[in-house]
Amino acid sequence: MKILGENIALGESKTIQFNIAKLYTATNVEIPIIIERAPKPGPTVLITAGIHGDEINGVEIVRQLIAKKINKPKKGTIICVPILNVFGFLSMSRQFPDGHDLNRVFPGTKKGSLASRVAYHFTNEILPHADYCLDFHTGGASRFNAAQIRVSPNDYVAMKYAKVFNSPFIVISKILEKSYRQTCLKMGIPSLLFEGGKSMSSDRDIIDYGVQGILRFLDHHEMLSHKFNAPKPNGQPVVIEKSTWIRAHKSGLLHTKVPINKFVAKGEILASITDPYGEMKVKVKAPNDGYIINVNQSPIVHQGDAIFHISTLVS
Predict the structure, then answer these.
(1) Which pLDDT tens digit goes with each residue over 188-239?
(2) How far is it, in rounded angstroms, from Cα 125 to Cα 102?
(3) What is the CATH number of the domain that holds 85?
(4) What percent of the chain lies above the pLDDT cut of 70?
(5) Which of 160, 165, 18 is nearest to 80 (CA)?
(6) Residue 238 maps to a domain
(7) Which is nearest to 57 in space by CA: 215, 214, 197, 211?
(8) Does 178 share its domain with 61?
(9) Would you tell me how many other CB atoms lie within 10 Å of the CB of residue 105?
């Protein structure tokens, strides 16, 4: 295997610096690519996090893989990229310094924006080595996502592996244009997109879901070292085929009443919105039976803000 001009033989471990640009202080910005190859050949799994620089849970999930040496496979190769958007991570920002979202510019261009150039080199120099991709994200801003795998409609291969991963939810969602997931699909590489928690936050339960899912995925491919045991699935994931956002009818202070993951009944009170002066209080009720898979944890909302994501069709 040859990545970024360096050869990595079977049985070898190597960290390669993916260096695309510098800060305006002339300081190099390097993206460590951590490669572990078993002596025995097998599949290559590419595990990425930090496409959005403020999404910490994924970074911690991949860090734990490396720290615990889960990334040392029994066969095949595991490539870990804990922080793909180092520029955003430095400033705790979702975007690159050029204002672009890395997950909206794939597969990138050689002479485009900074984000586009990083996407281009990653797509052409690292991604082609992968047989499978696992990518880790969180909810944006103050919106806390239940642990879930996103699968595009009729992607039966991804659905199979999502069930192996065994997060509490599998959410059927369309692939966004110019996303990393779309590029993987076009290149014929099965990929799983994990969502859990929210940006600028670290959540132990979400991190555990991510690590345990990777253990099950590697075990399924007979790559998991004999030093580790894949946790048994805790039932089957709920497959959410359709869902909708519940939005605030009024601006004010948000008081949520239900936890993430809960199944609620139509008409159940989910939250209340009050003004700061004790004169106004409105109830937010569930429009249908369904699972709550996202909760806005902001203490203050504006009229029209998304405050809950609820399933409308499950299987």
Answers:
(1) 999 999 999 999 999 999 999 999 999 999 999 999 999 999 999 989 999 9
(2) 16
(3) 3.40.630.10
(4) 100
(5) 18
(6) no
(7) 197
(8) yes
(9) 23
Q: Is there a domain that residue 213 lies in?
A: yes
Scanning 1-113, the segments in alpha helix (DSSP H) are: 56-67, 86-91
State mean pLDDT over 13-36.
92
DSSP 78: E
Distance between CA atoms of 13 and 36, rounded to whole angstroms? 5
| Residue at 230 is within a domain | no
Assigned token pair, 262: 């809960």
Q: Which two tokens stand for residue 140?
A: 């944006």
22 pLDDT above the threshold of 90: no
Specify the length of the chain in residues. Answer: 315
Quick one: 203 exposed, middle or buried, by C-beta within 10 A (0-12, 13-18, 19+)?
middle
* Residue for token pair 């910490």: 56
Question: What is the pTM assigned to this prediction?
Answer: 0.97
Q: What is the b/e burial string over 275-295, where b = at least 16 CB atoms within 10 angstroms of the residue's CB?
A: eeeeeeeeebebeeebbbbbb
CA distance 55 to 265: 32
Query: Do 175 and 286 reside in the same domain of the chain?
Result: no
Give yes or no: residues 164 and 310 share one domain. Answer: no
31: pLDDT strictly greater than 90: yes
Q: What is the pLDDT of residue 236?
A: 94
Instruction: Return d(Cα 190, Cα 239) in angstroms, integer.
Output: 19
* Omega before residue 107 within 30° of 0, cis: yes
The residues that bridge with 19 in the sheet, in sequence order, are 30
Q: Which residue's entry shows tokens 């990518």?
A: 135
Whether residue 92 lies inside any domain: the answer is yes
**Is the same domain home to 106 and 186?**
yes
**What average pLDDT does the chain have?**
97
Task: Express each pLDDT in 246-276 by its tens digit.
Answer: 999 999 999 999 999 999 999 999 999 999 9
What token pair was written down for 15?
């960290």
Helix (H) or strand (E) holding 64: helix 56-67
Rounded to whole angstroms, the Cα distance separating 101 from 113 reads 11
Q: How far apart (Å, rounded) are the C-alpha atoms in residues 166 and 171? A: 12
